[in-house]
Write the structure tokens for this entry.
Amino acid sequence: MKKYLNHLIILLLSFTFWSCQAEVRRPEVQIIPLPASMTNMEGTFAISSGTKILINSDSPEMHKVTANLCRYLENFYEIKNKITFSGASEKNSIFIKLNTRLSISKEAYNLTVSPKGIMLEAPSPSGLFYGIQTLLQLMPPIKQKLSEVVLPSVEIKDTPRFAWRGLHLDVGRHFMPKEFVLKYLDYMALHKFNTFHWHLTEDQGWRVEIKKYPKLTEVGSIRKETLVGHYGSKSYDGTPVGGFYTQEDIKEVVAYAADRFITVVPEIEMPGHSLGALTAYPELGCTGGPYEVATTWGVFDDVYCAGKEETYTFLQDVLTELLPLFPGEYFHIGGDECPKTRWQKCPTCKQKMKDEGLRSEHELQSYFVQRMEKFLNENGKKLIGWDEILEGGLAPNAAVMSWRGEQGGIAAAKQHHNVVMTPGEFCYLDHYQADPKTEPLAIGGFLTLKKVYSYEPVPPSLTEDESKYVLGAQGNVWTEYMKSPEQVEYMVFPRAAALAEVVWSPKGPKDYDNFKNRLVKLTKIYDLLGINYCKAEFK
Ligand code: TNX
């Protein structure tokens, strides 16, 4: 009996040793955002320079999608692969198959890694692109010359939950160089975000070239100095801040985004947050100025005059130059935080209200937004604005971005208008993410990684039919307290990873600890890419 026991122990020990070895050889699968369905399988597949990349369609889009994979393999592991046109899979290959007859959603994909090879299939290039983003996360997060890259066998069937998976960037408060905007788009792609909301104009600076109105950038993009510390401080830094994008820059950014299946939604703020423009063209305000590009934060009484026809002509001219640069379906007109103080006293505004039968200044704002909507619709675009555009009556086809909680979004969805959820409590990435005592100065608030992860964009008060109007959610990045790209990265990551999972992965019970485990690998990728992320959750 004792003899057998010894045998049994030896057998058990060797089995444990063997399975540990297998464990070491088969890397863990840690993907963010979590795919809709995933089955781990036995074994691995090794990509080497002998692995062929096969594509079944020779279109430029397919080459762009595939280039993304090749670039990664070459940059990180110095592995170069041959791309070959082929209708069928082969041994030791990565087969990237566009299959338009596949009845899954446009951005969905199926990915199988097995000891025989890799098969990625999707009905559109965007699905293939997301499949490749997943494939990249299956690779080891190191930058090192390798003869082969070992991937765990896995079967993934993935599809996004929401169509609008957004990240925003305010370049009005602090201008961010074009080179950083391009990086931001790369980081978005890694997380499968597909909408970049570019907030281009503000009280503190107008940031886009408009050929018909050169003073917008010559004058309106420069503020003489900036408030030091929190609102209420009397101290200023004495340093001028400027910066703007030329229309050529815009084209470059939009094309770069398109290569990553990201739509750029520009925002030109109106009727409020417009001191940059008013300083350049004071005749567009109710009092006629003079105005000054703001040096502090908050909400200002001086806004576009809603009574003057010149205001509408000016804004339509601005949009006429910008619309051809942005191929997406939505154009954001702001609409938030517009005090009615000047309008109440302005004879031109009062006259306009009388002429149009408007009973309140809120109705005057609604009239303003409706005129802009009509113009946008006539030019083939849809209007989106912050939830204040509900006040005084929503424009007929407008979509609403709900930021003051979810109430605006709920009201709009109940009126069968499209909605993007960005409530401050869950989506404001400018808020503190850890103890303010140990964090760099931020605007305020408190939004932890865990809280972002807990967000559910469809409020329970909506019926199933009304829920369909919730296009998705977005993280907002207001840059009052972010002076540099590094600071933007610090505030955005890793909270954007939590949000990516909110908007991509299926609804259902969420396991935060599991997410945090997977985040370890993603942060190693951040390290490789040089992203300056916040480590408060990893201490
Ligand atoms: C509110 S969100 C604003 C922004 C500020 C932000 C700071 C919104 C539509 N307006 O102008 O930058 O709060 O968190």
About this structure: The chain has two domains: 26-158, 164-505.
